[in-house]
Amino acid sequence: MSDLRETALASKAWPFEEARRVLKRYQKKDPEKGYVLFQTGYGPSGLPHIGTFGEVARTSMVRHAFEQMSDIPTRLICFSDDMDGFRKVPTNVPMQDELKEDLHLPLTKVRDPFGTHAGFAQHNNARLCDFLDSFGFEYEFASATDYYLSGKFDEMLLTALARFDKIQEIMLPTLGKERQETYSCFLPVSPKTGHVLQVPTLERNVEKGTIVYQEPDGEKVEIPVTGGNVKMQWKPDWAMRWAALGVDYEMSGKDLIDSVTQSSKICRALGKQPPESLSYELFNDEQGQKISKSKGNGLSMEEWLTYAAPESLSYFMYQKPKTAKRLFFDVIPKAVDEYHQQLRAYPGQELKAQLNNPVWHIHGGDVPASTLVVPFAMLLNLASVSGAEDKETLWGFIGRYAPDASAESHPDLDQAAGFAVRYFNDFVKPTRQFRAPTDQEREALEALRAELEAYDGPVEDEALQSIVYSVGRERFDPMRAWFTALYEVLLGASQGPRFGGFIALYGVDETVALIDKGLAGELA
Known about the structure:
Layout: H1 3-10, H2 14-24, E1 36-42, H3 50-69, E2 74-80, H4 96-100, H5 120-134, E3 140-143, H6 144-150, H7 154-162, H8 164-171, H9 177-182, E4 186-188, E5 203-205, E6 210-214, E7 220-224, E8 230-232, H10 234-245, E9 252-253, H11 257-269, E10 279-280, E11 283-284, H12 301-307, H13 310-318, E12 325-326, H14 331-345, H15 351-356, H16 358-362, H17 376-386, H18 391-401, H19 411-428, H20 439-454, H21 461-473, H22 480-491, H23 499-506, H24 508-520
Parallel strand pairs: 1-2, 2-3, 9-10, 11-12
Antiparallel strand pairs: 4-8, 5-6, 6-7
Helix pairs in contact: 2-3, 7-10, 8-11, 10-11, 13-14, 17-19, 17-23, 18-19, 20-21, 20-24, 21-23
């Protein structure tokens, strides 16, 4: 056994723990289908979003962890539930009135309001694939419509018909009394209107593979459950898909725990083992409220990627998936800097620590070197005090601090400089609040100014930090009050960077001038 495999089998990193649960399914013999199947689901009634990214990213991490433990081949399917009935018109698409005419049709039969594809689901599916491809995910796209119409689900649909009563027994207790009276796990696709109908199943013929239902106009119709003539209700559909494809692993949000429970029971009723699952916590906004697409609270994926690279978002997604996290703009700088801290630490770590390092999972073991020699938080403060309108302004300061760095040799730094300017102007600048120093703080700032003006040593982080610390230590207890004063008086923020590093980046003379402005009341 290789060192990598042995270490992976013992690693406590959550993707490895998840992967071990999948591996346990095949301790005695390999899967009959010849591979382990990972799956993520997507509802194409809307566009892909940050939750879609998180689910595919996390599942990909578990898949890669599994591949370090086993030689069994793997597949990842991203499954689009595009045969679902069109229940309501999204508010963020054109052709609102026309789309109302398509309500209750399968999503692949709904017109494309953007006019680029054969249907609304086809448009959103294409957007999903473009979205996943842009992040370099390795996956296979699957369409529910294709699977139903091509017969890939026929065998399991006939099994579901034979075990109809058992599926109903599992589902009915979870429904209200009125819903129980009309519920059927089969949804006929009307040959008259094309609508996906929520109607009772009046008769079943297992030998013929058909059901009888009543159309809204009163006519009784007999149709086969195969060939795309019916779609299953979504919990039975989820279970049927697991059973038909032999899905081994699928994660979902905490809000679907009950759905996972019911679908797992149905999957067993169909004679198959349900997949291993992880119920991840949902994201909250800044106030701790659950993020809602309809409310528009929280942070979208597009917004994150406006201010930081996708790897930082992957890092955020990696962290403690079972713990609720607040997803708002203030988490971006922290995620960027922590991600690069982990990149810098990686080369010097032993294998065990490397496999516990988030960047190993983010990059599938092929971990790049970080070229962000200036922390993102520092770049934000530099943008603040310099009033930078573009990244070239920041490079004027960076060039002094890191003379060997350039946009070509340090692409992470160049990209982060652009993000920092954008983030500062959009979020920091409108909320900055400078204040005048207290008498004690004024005396300390004057002392720091004098020390810096007389300083003729190397412009290095540690030497300058020593001066800052020495001035504060003589005047403040606790020292935190001194650094809070520096940030609030000079930067207009309640927290900030290691101040010696900031001086080295911004410049000693420039910092003296900044202190003069703070003392003169020109900043507040």
